Amino acid sequence: MTMTQPTVGAAMRWALSQDIIAAIKAHAQSSYPAESCGFVTRSGYLACTNRAADPSNQFLISPDEYLKAGQIFAVVHSHTNGRDYPSEADMRGQLSAGVPWGVLLTNGQETGDVLWWGDGVQIPDLIGRPFRPGPSGSDGKGDCYALIRDWYRLTRGVTLLEFPRESDWFHQGQNLYEDGFGKAGFRPLAAGEQPQEGDVALMCLLPRITAAHHAGIYLGGGLLLHHLDRRLSAREPAERWAKHIKLWIRYEGSS
Ligand SMILES: [Zn+2]
Fold first, then answer.
1. Is 214 a catalytic residue?
2. pLDDT tens sequence across 190-224
């Protein structure tokens, strides 16, 4: 067997099956302009009926179809609205399902690759990854929190709380970093405490937004690992970002 998709781990060998991928893509294309939805099961791709009231923007699978499917390895659906990454509702759905989810974009004529995400999906490289809103996945991309969460999984074996989010949550009045870090097991550094490896810098970059909407992880030696929109994730001197840092926080474990 040739591994053509190095970002997909051993637990997801089925994602390499050309038959399954072809069936998912064909279903997405034939369902357009509605979103397609279905399951990956032991016997392959199982196409389901999208019962959402607004099937061009949502999908809904009946409980009957869930029950009939048997063991579900993954849930997959298409987007027909131009967005090639999971929505906040998709992230919530994946977390409650507890199996990887896949999303693929179609315009009825062309259909993109399936982006798989969820903690069963192999973590992409931390440095040099392209930016995409939301969690990291099989496309090798992610956002600034995805990078922090992946760093903790890879280097500390800690799975931080996930925060379902839209790409522009901070434009919608949300304050996910500052409201969420306590729940995720972090505490603010006290005055005079120096940052250590693994500490997270919460930053404000946009002039009119007071909620911290960017974050990076301190690697020691004066280096900050972070992932800015439209840039590759990178290690940079923390000093360069000092004026944007609103708060340093330290992971102490969730109780
Ligand atoms: Zn979706």
1. yes
2. 999 999 999 999 999 998 999 999 999 999 999 99
Ligand 1: centre distance to CA 115 (Å): 11
How far, in Å, is the centroid of ligand 1 from the Cα of 130? Answer: 21
Note the pLDDT tens digit of each residue in 104-135: 999 999 999 999 999 989 999 999 999 999 99
CA of 221 to the centre of ligand 1 (A): 41
Report the 3 state secondary structure along the chain. CCCCCCCCCHHHHHHHCHHHHHHHHHHHHHHCCCCCEEEEECCEEEEECCCCCCCCCCCCCCHHHHHHHCCEEEEEEEECCCCCCCCHHHHHHHHHHCCCEEEEEECCCCECCCEEECCCCCCCCCCCCCECCCCCECCCCECHHHHHHHHHHHHHCCCCCCCCCCCCHHHHCCCHHHHHCCCCCEEECCCCCCCCCCCEEEECCCCCCCCCCEEEEEEECCEEEECCCCCCCEEEEHHHHHHHEEEEEEECCCC
Indicate if 27 belongs to the active site.
no
101-110 pLDDT, tens digit each: 999 999 999 9
Task: Confirm whether 37 is a catalytic residue.
Answer: no
